[in-house]
Amino acid sequence: MKANLLDPAVGRYILDHSTPPDPLLDELARETAEATGDAARMQISADQGRFLTMLTQLAAPAVAVEVGTFTGYSSVCIARGLSGGRLHCFDVSEEWTSIARRYWERAGVADRVSLTLGPALETLAAFDEPIDLAFLDADKGNYPGYYELLVERLRPGGLLLADNTLRSGHVADPARSETTTVQIREFNDLVIEDPRVSVVMLPVADGITMIRKNH
């Protein structure tokens, strides 16, 4: 449970009253922990996964994009919510995304997912399809650059979800000056000041900002 702002008992209650992940996602979470060690904290939580699947089902995107695939948990959740659309994943790690590829196959969604390896600031710049839904969960220092590339390509009414925008609540504490906290704080300010979009920040896990392109 990543909802660090909540009392642990409340976090447990939320998980107990949300549809749980299936055995395949549980296995992926375990393998990620074993294979990546401390880096496993980059994986989204079970409640986030359910949220992504349900939101994808509601939005029914023809073109979905994920920046930061890691070992595939979030991409499986998004791909499962698609109804005829396609998910385009962007990442830099062949090692970690090789795990994702296996789980796409096992989840039966490999035919609706494509993966592009390389620095996303470059690969996204070459992506020319209008985007209906995007999920951003990559290196935080480049969030502003990813954001601009994604918003430029979002259809009017399209949605962009940015993960980790609360940083355990540190963004609201002026005394916290860690590099990543400052980067996310600056990103949050950038988004709320952008007249092209409407924004709601949700206290799901470590914070998800939901961004809708107005026109």
What is the strand arrangement across the widest sheet? 3-2-1-4-5-7-6
Coarse morphology: globular
β-strand percent reads: 15-25%
Main beta sheet strand tally, sense and closure: 7 strands, mixed
The residue fraction in helices comes out at 40-55%
Order of helices and strands: HHHEHEHEHEHEHEE
* Total number of beta strands: 7
Distance between the termini: 36 Å
Descriptive overview:
The protein is of the alpha/beta class and 215 residues long. The protein is built from 8 helices and 7 strands, in the order αααβαβαβαβαβαββ. It has helices at residues 8-16, 23-36, 46-59, 73-81, 94-107, 120-123, 143-153, 179-192, and strands spanning 63-67, 86-91, 113-117, 131-136, 154-163, 197-202, 208-213. The chain has a 7-stranded mixed beta sheet with strand order 3-2-1-4-5-7-6, with helices on both faces. β4, α7 (143-153) and β5 form a beta-alpha-beta unit. α3 runs parallel beside α4. It is globular and about 45 Å long. The termini are far apart. The mean pLDDT is 95.
